[in-house]
Amino acid sequence: MLSDYIPRCLDPTWLLRFLEHSARYVRAETRALVTCLDLRGFAVGAGPLFADGRSLSKALRLLSATWPRLRCLLLDRHPGLADLDALRVAPGSNSEPLLLLSIAHCRDELPPSFFASPHLKSLVYLDVSDIPGSLRGPLVQRTLCPANLPSLRILKAQKRELDNKTASLLFKVFKTQLWSVDLSGNKLTDGVFDDIHEYSFPEPSSRTGDFAVEGRVVHRTEGSGSFGRFCTVNESEWSVAFSHPHRFLADAPFYATHAHDGPEPPVNPRLSGQAKVRPDSADGIKKLFSGDAGSHAPLLEHLHELDVCREQQGITHLHLNGNKVSAAALGRFLRSSSGQLQHLECDSMSFNLPQHVPSTWLSKASLSGILGLAHLFRPVFSANLQALRIHHSLVTQLLSLELGGMSAMASLWVAETLLLPRAELAYPEAFVPDMNPRLQSLVLTQIPRYSAGPLIHKLIHFLKLASIQERAIQDIKATNRRGPATLLGLRHIRFEFEPDPRDALEDDVEIELPHDPAAVMDDYSKDFSFFGESNWSSEPSTTSKPSSMSTAAVERHSPRNPSEPRGQTCSCESARPESPHSPSSHESHPSTEATHLLHTWSWNAQTFTLPVWIGFRTADQCTPAVREYMRLLRAQPHLQADPVPASPCHVAAGVPPGELIFSAAWEAILVPPSPPPTPAALHFHSAAPLPPLPPPSATTVPDRSRNSCGFVPRPTRDQLSGMRDVLAAIKAYRAQTKRAYEELKRTAERDGGRGEVKLGEPHFHWTGRLEVSVEEGSSRYWDWR
């Protein structure tokens, strides 16, 4: 691989001299060893690599003549390749075709004839991201099409001004030929999901797993425009708590019913769960085609047998970062995908309140994130999902808030103090590792740098859950050495943080924030102690599990949220059963009587009239979320709109399974009363309704530009001063668990052992790969293994 040896700081003309020298004086056998030329970082800061088209054509002619086995060419951030005829291969030569071409961020617009070049016939990977011009012209003129690119499997077209119509044309032209598409940074909206499903997804296939382990999706004939076709999850006694003893076992191999069916299955079964994530990045494909540095490249005839070169029956890797899609549309897409996706990236999505919600200060704010859809990432919906990049609210339940006239720091405080408790009330189910043990990589984006406490608690708790999952898989391997294979579990986590908001603090107050990691972790020292006293419950599990480190167990051992007073517990603990033998959501309330309201609506030219659940007649034993739902329906009848089937998240909040509810009223629970309630009124086990009283420690100032929206909450100086550095807390926790893990290993060695220490409890150090990205000018990454 020549890219590992070319200097990065030489003058661009050096490359031309090097090519000429290699063609004259280097033996043909030696030149035949070069299969990849990576110039993405070459001559950085020295200007364009080729100053004019003649130099470019000359270089291309030298490439094909000097290195006949060149398969991968990467020219990012250099002029576009408008003239590929220079790569013409002489008749009868032994030159190999180009398989990978990356010209992202080039400055020249590509003509439509570029994609019709015969030198691209064998391309498997093509990156034309961030280049002037749109792809609509090549698509309309049918130059960007399967006839000219029959081998293309991976297409990256970031920042190409693609709208829904252009994207629809792309999917319609290529249909299921592409298995990886990157359309990040374009102008796509919710309609793009319908086009992907119509053109680039195969017919629904057999992807169901074990009902006892995962539950089963039940489809109904009804539907709605916001939800799509109605479906519910039929839970088993184990799947409701993600605690089945076999939840970490890989699927058995597929066997054909008849010998004449051959090795290929007649249906498209789901992945077994053991294979690693199939790469679709330039570096990953380059490694497959050219091998590692110092090793021989695979033969060309063997490359065509690689999984990345074969047609995969539709898109399995989808990148939609930086587009204007909504969380509701993503939910509809996942419900109808039949487990097709293996790699999904959608880092930002809008969270839209229902139009029937009365106008408040929150209705004038911009919200982004995802709530109440964690169950869609379970194997019952996303059986093949291995890598996910998504907004952090999937795990933290904390939406991103932007409010006009308020600084980023103050917006963080408002979102975490006022919105988060209500989000936990209405949507108590957040994503945890055991929800989908098939997921191997998780990237959480747009994480705030500062927190009043709950955000830090949730991120650290998630790392602890990952450690517990790792221990459970280890225990299965130790007790079943000759048994079935296990899943890999979550092995890679990356936290991507937003820029530091302190620069915009002058809009509110000028304060100094703490930066000492020891001080940041001081409030959590008791919660996350390893060998001393703790606030965690030590009651043994009442259910027989393959390991004591189950998800249900960690919820009983989860650290208390610093924002909650003693004696209170997290909302998810009260709403979700801890074991299959506890009173589950499948049981009806003996002392309550459900009531319904007939509702009529239309969908797909059909009219439906069905009873919609509006609560219980007596609210003494209702959960706080159900009481608030009932109160909103009685106080605001216009919220009796948009019926949807109760999801596992609704069931966890207290809705009986199998019922229809008014989603407009349920989503309105997220809106704080105006003026905002006291923090004490937001505790999840309070039997009283939420009183509309202002918090004593907060100041509310009227927003004169929004007189119809009431009061806009603003934090005080002391409240902003109390916010902590999330990055420092994560770093301190990671160092603490690693020290405890290493100390146990040293103790085991001194006791005569081999230094082997069980994972999980008591140190809770997760041995996977943890990365942190901080956006400060250019992104910086830290890798904390």
From TrEMBL:
InterPro entries: LRR_dom_sf (IPR032675). Residues 537-551 have a biased composition (Low complexity). Coiled coil: none annotated. Residues 534-593 are annotated as: Disordered. Residues 575-590 have a biased composition (Basic and acidic residues). It comes from the Eukaryota. This is Leucine rich repeat domain containing protein.
